[in-house]
């Protein structure tokens, strides 16, 4: 992988840190392939390096690869269009517009590939908020994405606090809670999720998440558009290990009791992932998410071997479409 800085033509003076790998020419007449990795809010592009290293060591015919830090993430500069007088900056639609410009520019000037569209086979590998970003990109650029790997997608359609009952709401019945969960547990958890995860909480990246629920209100729709070959894209959905995530939530700064995480977060997240599995046809993806044993939310950090394996599996499936 080659590391370099690049300036988008539309945002001169603001550098994005990227890593690229130029793939080998196809020997079978298939479209050239570009694998694009999309980070979460708290996971810069460097978190993909172990999985990319494994991927390149296992394949004899390499795809082209792009990883990058979004504006104000990792080693990239701030977005020059962000207003200076607010904690909120660009939203998800601005991110995908930048992403399309970046991919187009990298393909033309560095990787020497066709632009996104009918002559390029593109696969998105995404973690956390990178997953809804990839969905929005595909909707904005139909016919450009051949495959998606969602690694513990962010639940884009919730404010997170609403995952839990409100003990201060009129008519709340304490006896409705599971036996191993107290009212104090619920109140503490709601406060922590309100402090850390609600969409209006600012982040270092200045990515404004407040309209994400309106942009993607449903896990299972809209369907992912067809790819460059005119076929439904391939889809792999991977979720975290429930017990690992519950342990991390307990031992982290939020100190969420494990029974609360299991009852209200893990269960809701699994249903969301099941909805994501319905974004494409049954023939192009399983109906149930894969559970990444031993992994918390950042699956690419906890099990890069799994990530590389799923990418290789998807590339092989795409190649079989040619036969």
From TrEMBL:
Quote the Pfam families the UniProt record gives. Answer: Abhydrolase_6
Q: Which InterPro entries match?
A: AB_hydrolase_1, AB_hydrolase_fold
* Segments forming domain AB hydrolase-1: 35-309
| Protein name stated in the entry | AB hydrolase-1 domain-containing protein
């Amino acid at each position: 992988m080659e590391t370099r800085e690049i300036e988008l033509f539309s945002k001169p003076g603001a550098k994005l840190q990227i890593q690229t790998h130029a793939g080998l020419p196809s020997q079978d007449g298939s479209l050239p392939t570009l694998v694009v990795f999309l980070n979460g809010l708290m996971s810069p592009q460097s978190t993909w390096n172990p999985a990319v290293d494994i991927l390149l060591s296992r394949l004899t015919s390499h795809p082209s690869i792009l990883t990058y830090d979004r504006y104000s993430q990792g080693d990239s500069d701030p977005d020059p269009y962000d207003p200076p007088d607010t904690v909120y900056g660009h939203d998800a639609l601005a991110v995908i517009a930048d992403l399309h410009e970046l991919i187009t520019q990298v393909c033309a000037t560095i990787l020497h590939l066709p632009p996104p569209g009918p002559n390029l086979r593109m696969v998105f590998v995404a973690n956390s908020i990178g997953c809804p970003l990839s969905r929005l990109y595909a909707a904005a650029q139909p016919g450009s994405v051949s495959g998606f790997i969602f690694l513990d997608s962010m639940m884009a359609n919730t404010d997170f606090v609403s995952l839990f009952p409100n003990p201060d709401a009129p008519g709340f019945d304490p006896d409705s809670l599971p036996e191993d969960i107290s009212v104090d547990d619920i109140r503490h958890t709601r406060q922590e999720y309100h402090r850390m995860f609600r969409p209006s909480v600012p982040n270092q990246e200045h990515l404004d998440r407040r309209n994400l629920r309106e942009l993607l209100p449903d896990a299972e729709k809209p369907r992912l558009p067809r790819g460059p070959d005119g076929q439904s894209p391939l889809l792999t959905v991977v979720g975290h290990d429930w017990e690992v995530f519950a342990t991390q939530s307990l031992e982290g700064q939020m100190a969420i009791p494990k029974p609360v995480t299991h009852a209200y977060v893990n269960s809701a997240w699994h249903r969301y992932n099941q909805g994501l599995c319905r974004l494409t046809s049954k023939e192009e993806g399983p109906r149930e998410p894969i559970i990444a044993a031993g992994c918390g939310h950042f699956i690419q950090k906890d099990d890069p071997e799994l990530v590389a394996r799923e990418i290789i599996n998807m590339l092989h499936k795409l190649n079989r479409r040619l036969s």
